[in-house]
Amino acid sequence: MAKQTVLFVNPSVVDDPFWSKVQTISQNAAKQLGFDLQVIYGEGNRHIQIQELKKYLEYQSKPDYAILILYPGAAEETLKILEQHQVSSITLEETISGDEKKVISEPGQKFKFWLGEVYHDNYQAGYELAKTLHQLSDKNLKSKAVLINGHYGSESDMRAKGAVDYFGSHNVDVAQEVHASWSESLSTEQTLKLLKRHKDINIVWAASDLMAIGAMKACKQACAESQNIAFGGFDWLSVGLEKIASGEVQASVGGHFMMGAWALVSLFDHQKNHPYWTEHKELVIPMGIITKDNVHNYQWMKSNPNWGQIDYKSKSLHLNKQSQYQLHLIPKVWQKN
């Protein structure tokens, strides 16, 4: 019997640090679960992603499933293409909001082949990062924060909203929010301007590790020696863990790099006629936070670990006769005593 094919649409470029990790883990999960995983790239541009998706579906054998992110401004067109080709899909992250969300509706309603969304709680994650940075900031100063956000979209907005709500309820002044498009270099440029514009900043909340590191580099250039700033981001990148271990960055939220693998586990169950995606519209995955206190437990992630050692089948509802997914933040095979 031929393997079922899953098209994984990497929304970024081949060497993107975060998405290459999501892809690598997904490839290992697909191999264990018996899927043939095909990959195309959106190159960080909604127009390119649409073009590549159209090209694949027109010239390649139709995949059984697709896993992808919906780019803001292209959600309806993307779902129409998948519907036209009758490809059952799962979307990652919760990227669409506002009027565009109303247009596409919920999974399975307007677009019958859209099975559901796999994402983490961006609001809670943003809130927890803000809370941790506040706790780790210089208590001798009145707390003043700036936010370095990614692009304009639901994912970024919800992360920032969580941060703003925490800061607002804990007497932390949010001086300004800027957008740095997930870029380390642009974050450095933005932060240099923020440091000139706002005095006594002691918290820099960033929506990614790379932007947190960019902000930290700006402070090395422009901050007075006595200015202690708590920096934090998202993604658990290897370079982010290094900066936490060295004390240059204080925190990182992560675990969501497993989302492609968890989507594949749910498709394995769908293939086996488990009713999860007929009874649910979403699968919310857990996230956690790393600081200097626990970074030693996560050093295994820095050295190109073998993601194939994870037992992905152990999370299957079909194989384990469960009704709800029990998705541990870090698979037990990696947990250190």
Can you put this structure into words, describing what you see?
By secondary structure, the chain is of the alpha/beta class. It has helices at 17-33, 46-59, 75-84, 98-104, 122-136, 154-169, 184-197, 209-222, 238-246, 259-271, 276-279, 317-320, and strands at 4-10, 35-41, 65-68, 88-92, 114-120, 144-149, 173-179, 203-206, 230-234, 251-254, 282-285, 288-290. The protein has a 6-stranded parallel beta sheet. Strands 7-6-8-9-10-12 form a 6-stranded mixed beta sheet, sandwiched between helices. Strand 3, helix 3 (75-84) and strand 4 form a beta-alpha-beta unit. Helix 1 (17-33) packs parallel to helix 10, helix 5 (122-136) packs across helix 6 and helix 7 (184-197) crosses helix 8 (209-222). It is globular, with a radius of gyration of 20 Å. The chain starts with a strand and ends in a 17-residue tail after the last helix. The model has no long low-confidence stretch (mean pLDDT 93).
Number of helices: 12
Task: Tell me the distance between the termini.
Answer: 42 Å
Number of strands: 12
Model regions low in confidence, pLDDT < 50 over at least 5 residues? none
Give the topology string: H per helix, E per strand.
Answer: EHEHEHEHEHEHEHEHEHEHHEEH
Shape: globular
The largest β sheet comes out as: 6 strands, parallel
Helix share, percent? 40-55%
Q: Provide the gyration radius in Å.
A: 20 Å
- Share of β-strand residues: 15-25%
Which class best fits the helix and strand makeup?
Answer: alpha/beta
